[in-house]
Amino acid sequence: SSSTARSVAVVVAAFEAEEIQVNDETSADYVEILDGIGLIREEKETAGTIVARMRADAAPFDNVEVRRAVQMAVDNAVVLELGLNGLGSVAENHHVGPMHPEYAKLPAQKVDPVAAKAMLDAAGHGDTEMELISIDGDWRTVTTDAIGGQLRDAGFNIKRTIIPGSSFWNDWTKYPFSTTNWGARPLGVQVYGLAYRSGEAWNESGHTDPEFDAKLTEASGIADADKRR
């Protein structure tokens, strides 16, 4: 966005004038610029991410096969490359990452657009329009475009809607299919408690499962990360 460009220009000017020696964060689009003025780049993998979630209580996403088909049609490595210039780690379609102490490595998910479309057809939604919503103006828009493009390539009927930031957050938990940027949390159980526990205010996917809630409560009380994992 223009405001981001202005702020980066101010940072570049401050570095060049030797008014500052360090900044705390550089967006993907401006890493090359700051590399170009001779700065030393430091990197830290965080749990900050984008989540493309479908509300499990909103048609057609109340059908688990539809949700699985959407996942199978999208290659997260492509999403990372197009959305953040490859600057990050590839997501695994669950909201805990290797930086969390209780992270557990799961088998890699299969990316197969042809099989995904067949699964969608079998679920009775081969032609159903899916509206994919994002905020406007930055990496979240581009990332969501990458997801939508792959779904279209797989034969899904995708409508892309971009909502201005001034109004996007008014109903961010309610959109049936949209992307949300999530900040880092130190523990995986913190993320799950905020985003996936039944009835939580930020539970934007509408996930509700008493067994999950019970296990999460138990895990949240375990100090040892290996036992919590």
Question: Can you describe this structure in just a few lines?
Answer:
By secondary structure, this protein is α+β, with helices and mostly antiparallel strands. The chain has helices spanning about 1-15, 30-35, 65-75, 75-85, 115-120, 140-155, 165-170, 190-195, 210-220, 225-229, and strands at about 50-55, 130-135, 155-165, 175-180. The strands form 2 sheets. A two-stranded antiparallel ribbon has the order 1-4.
- Which regions have little confidence, pLDDT < 50, spanning 5+ residues? none
Strand line-up in the sheet with most strands: 1-4
Strand content: 5-15%
Q: Which class do the helix and strand fractions yield?
A: alpha+beta
Shape: globular
Total DSSP helices:
10
Question: What attributes does this structure have?
Answer:
single chain; 229 residues; alpha+beta; two-stranded parallel ribbon; 4 strands; globular
Explain what you see.
- The chain has 229 residues and is of the alpha+beta class.
- 40% of the residues lie in helices and 11% in strands.
- The chain has helices at 2-16, 31-36, 64-73, 76-84, 113-122, 139-153, 165-168, 188-195, 210-220, 225-228, and strands at 49-54, 129-135, 157-163, 177-182.
- The strands form 2 sheets. It has a two-stranded antiparallel ribbon.
- Strand 2 (129-135), helix 6 and strand 3 (157-163) form a beta-alpha-beta unit.
- The protein is globular.
- The termini are far apart.
- The relative contact order is 0.15.
